Each structure stands twice: as C-alpha cells, then as structure tokens.
C-alpha cells in the first residue's frame, strides 16, 4: 500500500520559479501523489500552480490547482474550501510558500520587511488557522512547514527579514504542535540547507558573479558531504512527515542539509 493512500494534501507554494524546472513545491506535490495522496496545488502564480497539478496528473494522481497569495486570508480560505469541496478532507497541510529579500537591517526597506513577514510567517498562521479546525473534526492531520537553516544560523549572506521570519516559523511550529497534540495534529518544520534548486539562481547567484558553476562548487565545498542537496531530498522528508511512519514526531525542526549546520555557529 502506498504511504499516503487515501489522504489529501494542500500544498501552498506548489509552483516553481523556473517554468520548466523542479522546485521544492512541485517536487513535493508529485512526491505526495506518487505515494497515493490527492493534491491541491496552490500558488500565487496561476501558471505555476496549474503546471504542478498537471505534473501530478501525469503521474496518475488526482490534482487541482488554485491561485492563492498565502498572505491573503480570503484566498487561503478559498483554497481550503476548494480542497474540501473536491476531496472532503485535508490530511496534510504543506506550507512551502516563501520569499526573501536581500539586505541587512540597514539596507532592508520597511515595505520589503513587511512583505517577507506577511508571506513567510503570516501565511503560515493563516493556513493553520483555516485548516486546524478541519483536522480537529476529522481526527488529526500533519502540518509541515518549509523553514530554512537560515532560521538557526548565519548562512553567509544578509537576508535579515528571511532569517527572522523563518525563526518565527520554527516557533510557530512548536506552539501548534504543543497546543494541538491532543487533537492528533502533528506540526513539524523542514529546514533545507544548501539545495540546488531554481530559487537559488534568483536569490544568491549574484553573490557569485553570476557564475553558476562557481556557485555550485563553493556551496558544495561548504557541506560535509561535499555536495548540495536537491529538491527531492526536501520532498522525501515531507513525505515521511506526512505519513504515519512519523506518527510520534511533532514539534521538530529538521535540517535537510548534508550536515552543514554542524559546522556553523547557531
């Protein structure tokens, strides 16, 4: 039997910044489907959400897509309502939506700070607020947040609003886990490390003079395993946390990082 057979997953941030690539969002949506889950693919980019759902269906899974800005309560509520209308339950809430803005405290504009906080932490709050009552009524569920090793350590580049928002996400994870453990609702965070995904080409490539191979070589050298991870490493961790194999795991923040945080000051 497939590990997620009969379950329904709502994946927020299911798209990929590369219209032809694999990111954490669409890889996780497909990984859920391969294990038998129905999937609702939500993203602020309609084309990206649609493509993720198409990728799920191409694997033989059942999926629909919806446009949702996670910082917008009405759009989150709409995504949740669509999921319930189509599948009647939400067993897995996977919050992959996130943005970052380059700069330290001095360089970061207030509007940029607010937008990062709205997406990265308010979005998690709004989605939990909408989904937890459903999980309570149905007898449980698994909430998975995609945080970052930036939530616990300096990563070499200044993204102050991103670091702060992801640290807040870790604590939200713990508090949801404690408050709703008796409801059989588990809540955990994945902390991706140096992952070779399309998003890093948008966010950190400029620090390496636009040289992709220079970036990959430098980032790989920093990891004890001497290689970056890929989006499937993140997706496979999400499948484990979504499945009953992790039924006694909650309130954790799990680095998926090849050991790199063992070498960094927390």
Shape: globular
Structural class of the secondary structure composition? alpha/beta
CATH superfamily heading:
NAD(P)-binding Rossmann-like Domain
Widest beta sheet: strand line-up: 3-2-1-4-5-6-7
Instruction: List the quaternary state of the chains.
Output: single chain
Note poorly predicted spans.
Answer: none
Q: Would you tell me which CATH topology applies?
A: Rossmann fold
How many helical stretches? Answer: 8
Mean residue pLDDT: 96
Secondary structure tally: strands = 7
Specify the CATH architecture. Answer: 3-Layer(aba) Sandwich
Supply the CATH class: Alpha Beta
- Rg computed from alpha carbons, rounded to a whole number of angstroms: 17 Å
How much helicity do the residues have? 40-55%
Largest sheet: 7 strands, parallel
What order do the helices and strands follow?
EHEHEHEHEHEHHHE
Number of domains in the coordinates? 1
Amino-to-carboxy terminus distance:
41 Å
Strand content: 5-15%
Structure, described:
This protein has 266 residues and is of the alpha/beta class. It has a single domain, classed as Rossmann fold, CATH 3.40.50. Helices cover 44% and strands 14% of the residues. It has helices at 24-34, 46-58, 73-87, 110-138, 160-180, 198-203, 212-221, 231-242; strands at 8-12, 38-43, 63-67, 92-95, 141-146, 185-192, 253-256. The protein has a seven-stranded parallel β-sheet, with helices on both faces. α1 (24-34) packs parallel to α2 and α4 runs parallel beside α5. The protein starts with 7 loop residues before the first strand and ends in a 10-residue tail after the last strand.
